Amino acid sequence: MPGTHRADRSPESSANDAPVAGGSTATATDAPVTGKNGSGKGDSGKSGSGKNGSGGNGSQGSDKGSSKPRGKARLARILIPAILTLVWLALAGIGGPFFGRIGEVSSNDPTTYLPSSAESTAVQEAQSGFFESDEIPAIVVAESSGGEKLTEEQIAEVADAVESTTADDAAVGEASPPIPSEDGQALQVFVPIDADADAVETVEALRTSLKDTVDGVDVYVTGPAGFSADLTEAFSGIDGLLLVVAFAVVLVILLIVYRAVILPLLVLTSSLFALCVAVLVNWLLADAGLFLLNGQVQGILFILVIGAATDYGLLLTARYREELERSRDHVTALKSAWKGSIEPIIASGGTVIAGLLCLLLSDLESNRALGPVASVGILCAILAALTLLPSLLALFGRVAYWPRVPRYAGEDAEGTEDAEGVTGVARADQTLDQVVKGHGVYGRIGKYTVGHPRRIWVGVTLLLILGAAFFPTLKAEGVAQSDLILTASDARDGQNVLAEHFPGGSGTPAYILAPEADAAEAAQTAADLDGVESVSLTANDDPAGQLAFQDGEFVGSIPDPNAPVAEPTVSEGKVLLQATLTDPYDSAAAQDTVRELRAAYGDDVLVGGNTATDVDTNDASIHDRNLIIPIVLIVITLILIALMRAIVAALMLVVTTMLSFAAAMGVAALVFNHVLDLPGADPAVPLYGFVFLVALGIDYNIFLMTRVREESERHGTREGIIRGVALTGGVITSAGIVLAATFAALVVIPILFLLQLAFIVAFGVLVDTFLVRTLQVPGIATELGRHLWWPRKLAADGHGGTAAASKVVESHGPETDEIEAETGGAVEGRGEAETDGAVERGAETETGGAVERRDEGVAEAAGAVERRDETDAAPAAASDQTEEEPPHGSPEAIEKAAEELGTGHGRRRKDV
């Protein structure tokens, strides 16, 4: 009815919105207010007592909502939001410059992320006893442009160019002499770079000086240092291009969703400030040595904060708009919206944080770092949505929604009909028909889904199972480092030249740490493998720095056979062998060779190097994936049970979200293998996809089911599902599109891992938004009925006759579905209601003077008739049979019946 207000609102907000004394008569749904400012029932039993309120039937409410705040109250309404905004502005101003300083606390070197227990980590630590410093090899590769043999002049020019470029660079060790290939068409020069120095700068200097220096020769810089430089270049767009694209995409979506000018800017401002603070906090934590950042973690942080903060902002502003329709005062409306939004925002954000923190159990440092880094980001997004954005909304008021400013429905909503005939009455206070008509497609979807639940959820489930069937075809065993970069790569081109003219592992050998006494045996074992081209022993006394292993012996590089052979370098009783592999060091074949070496040696011999690092990284990633996924699943399930206080509902949400994840991974496998023809995926891709899809997918289900539970407590489960889908459909769909778009923005960073993660999360979020949350979950929930909330029992689902049977499904063309209302755990249908064991039969049930006519949807309470368009009203409460009932038709009876109807449910009838 026009002018009604929600029964579940707090006394304060109800009083604020009540009509002014002398104005329109308050409806039965207005909560009674007692005290000096409101009308109510006095001690004498007569209504209308109170200092400022009068009236025999309680028709005059408080004028608190209509009076403007004065004095200190008015100042506080401006001052508090302004102070909060200034605090956020100051924090964002401090954090902004740290975007450019993230490189100080980050590294893209995979060796820095291995656990200390990894075999390659132990070998790397032991190498300090054999070399003066830790070095990253850069390999300069020169190839004849026309396929001819290189001339002596060309070889000398390349050597001179390398020497002149590195001579004054303290971070560069002595370059090796040019090493020609057997066919004479190429050469390679090894340039050792200090691992603690900026290898990227040295590599770029080499590339610049060598480009077009020698006529007829193509020169490349490859090797680990070359790939590191290319990766750094690929990640360089994170704090520039990625942010611009992400914010631009979100702005366009918000403009379409809100059809307003100011509000999208306010939401984006809160997202940007949250990101600035998250960057600041994470930089401080990384600088303290708690974790180490890398490019992919940094990119995920940016996208996650922007997407999450925007989603939470959408939820708050949607609820705020509802409240503006039922309150004259925008601050009062904002308070109600904040109270209604805080639970789902904190619950969803807390679920994401809990899932992310499970990554702390990872072996791989890059996985472990993502947990706290992203959790800090989500926490900042929550704080911004619950403090900064409300402050901005309080300062701007209704004008934030301009030009579509929501109007207060007020005492009389006449003349406020929209195109669908729905009045300006606050959305949550409307009848079911009004809710369905007023929320367009989602109202109709909710109504149809509840009317045909089985065909809906079974159909969606079969579709998801079809997609999930391709999940096992996803190739996630790791990829070569040369395949990580999707754009042009000088290092990759150089690696291809090396593989064509030299043994693939040239310049990046596998290091074998063996006891001194077993050096020859260990060398022979390696030399016998097909994947090993040659073996040498580290000897710093030799001019070449190593002794070649030939015919079972170590041979020095000194040509004089009478000269003594240099002694091998020994550190703590160990020697260091170098095995040059036949395949490129970052290839799957090279990794297989390393595994064969490890299998051939005992525990006393360790194998390390770049290839071994890749092996250990993949193994650690697979270990993390197998460990973290079930832990995240258990943690999120327990959190959902605690939040929903319903085991069945929680399990239903987890199972549907898991199926959505599997379907997304299956479709991703099809796209990666057959459309994009990608070489494979990192083992961490399924792990990251799971964490984000499950946590974020649960997010939207929490948004939905929180509202469904709220509506079900007043209207019953089936009608609550329709209302929940209708009322949250628009905002959740908008949030899903925003999150999918922000993750899709990761494709601007030309890294294979981020491309795959962007597709999986974006596609999975859209599947969850449009299929799972909109159709599958409501369909299954309808089938479960009151059992959905087990072990809880919702009052409106019929405990003690406290709620009416809601006729939630009207005719769908020629079909009409009859829905049974459950009362006190028993089924009420066709005029039979069971209340605490007492069965009342008949088409009409009369309780305390209140008559409920189901067939006509008319509720009569002591002569007061409330008609709602083709929907059932909740029955009046059963009065306490142990108390003396007021005379039928007396003012006391009228007031009592009106009060009970206004609450939307009656009180439980006591046994006589």
CATH architecture of the domain at 79-105 and 237-405: Up-down Bundle
Sheet having the most strands? 6 strands, antiparallel
Q: Classify the helix fraction into a percent range.
A: 40-55%
Give the strand content: 5-15%
Q: Write the CATH homologous superfamily of the domain at 79-105 and 237-405.
A: Multidrug efflux transporter AcrB transmembrane domain
- The number of helices is 23
Oligomeric description of these chains: single chain
**Strands side by side in the biggest sheet:** 10-9-8-11-7-12
Structural class: alpha+beta
CATH class category name of the domain at 79-105 and 237-405: Mainly Alpha
Q: Whole-number radius of gyration?
A: 36 Å
CATH topology of the domain at 79-105 and 237-405: Multidrug efflux transporter AcrB transmembrane fold
Shape estimate: elongated
Number of strands: 20
Mean pLDDT across the residues is 78
Q: Which ranges are low-confidence, i.e. pLDDT below 50, for 5 or more consecutive residues?
A: 1-67, 411-428, 798-884, 901-912
What's the N-to-C terminus distance?
35 Å
